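Subject: for your reference before the review

Hello V.,

The reviewers asked for a structural picture of the protein, and I figured it would be easier to keep everything in one thread rather than splitting it across files. Below is the amino acid sequence we used in the manuscript, unchanged from the supplementary table.
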Amino acid sequence: MRELKIFAIVAFFSLLTYYLVEPYAHHEMHKKVDTEGNEIHSESHGFKYDGKPDIAEAHRAKNKALVESKTAFWADVAKIGQLKGNASAGQSHFASCAGCHDANVNMGGVIPPVLDHAGAIYDKNYLIALIKDPAIASNIDHKYKDTGNHPMGAIKFMMPDDQSIADVVAYMLEHKAGEVTPKEAYEEACMRCHAVRYGKLPQLGDTPKFKHEKDSLAHKIKVIEEQDRVKAYMGKLPPDLSIMIRARSEHFMKTFVENPQSQLAGTSMPRVGLSAEGYEKVEAYMVSTGDPSKAKREAVGPWVILFFVIFTILAYLWKKSQWKDLH
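And here is what came back from the structure prediction:
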């Protein structure tokens, strides 16, 4: 029984350290505080976009005008969300989007994302907000004196009324959805800024196979030039995300993707607007490239535990048999 007592004590303190002491130490060493020294708690909102985090940020900044403008903005978004959109009418409005989002050309610093699966990976309210005012929807309006200067800023002047916004969003939800693979979700939501070296996926997408070295070098130059444009727009080149899924906690990843300002105040990274399903797809791709052995490791895990259980039982029985004459 002495061995079992020792095991119980070791297990207790190991679990105590893992589940209580280490998280507490991490929390104390990585506290986030506002300008008044008050601690800020980053919470996930289930990938639902209603503007509450943005309004809370404005409150913490004690900017009354900003609180009022953001409250009014997100109230309008909620109102538009209640309108019944007409997908057929929205198709003509979507043509205003396709001109930029199908061109694969850098505009204002970044390549506009492809919208082939916008209705499947983005939240409805976020799409409404993005059309209404891209800078405010993305929570990077602090970068602009006039949010109309956002690279996509002109879109808000191309939709004449709230019903037009409801219609084009209805079109995307109905006709730009369907099945989407994890890689497609990542390419559409993240790739234009974040390369994945382990997935051989730079900002311009999959690198083609070239017959001649000069063609390969020419493509590398295009990638470097694109990275320079992104760097100029963002202030620095966004990090490669090959192993980010392993370097950061699940909580950090979710809250950062939902609202980058919650983890890195003042960042130029825009809110992406992924739905819960869209985030799961993106996360699955990041796991497949950054931790490709995870599935095999998890499959082997139970067998390893079973081995240790059987080994422990056999070791205990052997010890008992060897010591039986020593009492």
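For the response letter, the relevant points are probably these. The mean pLDDT is 88. Residues 294-323 form the longest helix (30 residues).

Happy to draft the paragraph if you're swamped.

O.
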